[in-house]
Amino acid sequence: MSNGISNFHKETLPNGLRWAALPMPGVDTAAVVIGAKVGAAHEELEVNYGVAHFLEHLFFKGGKRYPKPKEVALAIDRVGGVSNAFTSYLNTHYWVAVPAQHLSVAFDVLEDMMCNATIPAEELERERKVILEEINRYEDDPESVVWYALQESLFGDQPLGGTIIGTRDSIRAMNREGVLSFREKNYHPRNLAIAVAGNVSPEAVAKEVERWFGGWKREDAAEAQPSIDPLQTGETIKAISRSDLAQAHLMVGISVPVGIKDPRAWPLEIAAFALGGSLSSRFFHLIREERGLAYRVSTSFDAYLHVGAFSTYVGTSPENIGEVLSILQNEHASLAEKGISEEEFLTAREALAGRYALRSETTHASANHLAFATLYDLAEQTPHQARERILSVTYSEVQEALKKVEGRSLHLALVSPLSEPQAREIASTTMHG
Q: Which of 107, 190, 275, 332 could form a disulfide with 208 if both were Cys (CB 3.0 to 4.6 A apart)?
């Protein structure tokens, strides 16, 4: 299979596990990513809220060959490698990057984690404390707090409207039986994809995949399905008071019926970049350069399954909340009718394509992209293909995609030193007149 890089290759094992290899001869390393098609959106809020992320941590606590966390870490350190993992709403990735000659070590460690993790009760209790500290860290970061507040506002009382990490109550209530049940349901060959990028050949990757994962059998297992209701929403304005803050952190956003496989997702990503993706973007210019109202301004489009979120973040002084909101509201109101200019489109398209070109030169970013694309069978399997797809988007496609924002309610999340009633009054007055 060709993607402009002639030796890009992917296959599916008889047990249903998919794998892909992207040789990068100009580097000395290789990154191996195991992607699991399960994340926070696959949870049940009343049953196991936060379990996907909790389990991600526990996979590093030891298996059969490396029974202790330190042994897992030492196996990677001794060959000069690095490892980590992350959980999102739709997927969880585990990765190891090593000098290319140690590819087998990366597979060895990852297979022991995926297939042999013992998850001892004492490790679960210890990691429970770690995750509670992680929650503290998130709550100390107002940008994280406001981002999740907007998710709740946009998507309401469902996993997509909650935090990926869970809450203190849900983490304290998590038990080993529930964690093991979640693993049994979601971690099996049909729900995983392995992606390798680096100075490796497809033949070498095929050999390692077959060696370490070819014998893993789970005939009864099916691919996981997330629990996402694209029509569900929360309250339009969500205000959180934090007296320890000097700055107000606000996000406005809309949900749109455009998911990861929708052809309109790329045009909306270009539009988001034009509005707040760089120093030359419209919102950055209007809010920071013209008026000096903020230091950081950013806009993004995040696509999930069958639904996406078009959102903008601004950090500003409390006295500027009304003015910033007024600017953002007026700009959003004109998007469906006027869209973006052709000059904005051309600049954003080239800049966004360039980001993917930069991403394609690192093994870790390439393997992560490849793993997610393989899990969800996306058309753009590699960063190179994504770049080509971006460059193929036309101005009319962006303008047409922006019509999806017409009639969509603008939601606001605000974390500030103001009291909640004060913040709500400013927001309501500005947004509703």
A: 107
Pairing of strands 248-256, 308-316: antiparallel
The pLDDT of residue 1 is above 70: no
List pLDDT tens digits, range 270-283: 999 999 999 999 99
3-class secondary structure, 413 = strand
- Residue 229 neighbours by CB under 8 Å, 6+ apart: 155, 158
Specify the CATH class of 9-213 in words.
Answer: alpha beta
Question: What percentage of the chain has pLDDT greater than the value 70?
Answer: 98
Q: In the block, which residue shows the tokens 């679960």?
A: 124
Give the pLDDT score at 433: 64
Q: Could you check whether 9-213 and 237-432 share the same CATH topology?
A: yes
Do the beta carbons of residue 383 and residue 390 sit within 8 Å? no
Instruction: Give which of 256, 235, 97 is closest to 161, Cα–Cα.
Output: 235
CB atoms closer than 10 angstroms to residue 87: 23
Neighbouring CB atoms inside 10 A of 214's CB total 14
Bridge partner list, 31: 97, 197
| Sequence-ordered list of residues with C-beta below 8 angstroms from that of 281, at least 6 positions apart, any chain | 273, 274, 275, 297, 299, 348
Mind listing the pLDDT tens digit for each residue in 369-427? 999 999 999 999 999 999 999 999 999 999 999 988 888 899 999 999 999 999 999 99
Closest CA relative to residue 398, chosen from 258, 226, 295, 294: 258
Place of tokens 């954003």: 348
Look at residue 225 in the predicted model and tell me its pLDDT: 83
Please tell me the pTM assigned to this model: 0.94
H or E stretch covering 146: helix 142-155
Classified by CATH at the fold level, domain 237-432 comes out as Cytochrome Bc1 Complex; Chain A, domain 1 (3.30.830)
What confidence score (pLDDT) does residue 219 get? 74
- The H or E element spanning position 199 is none
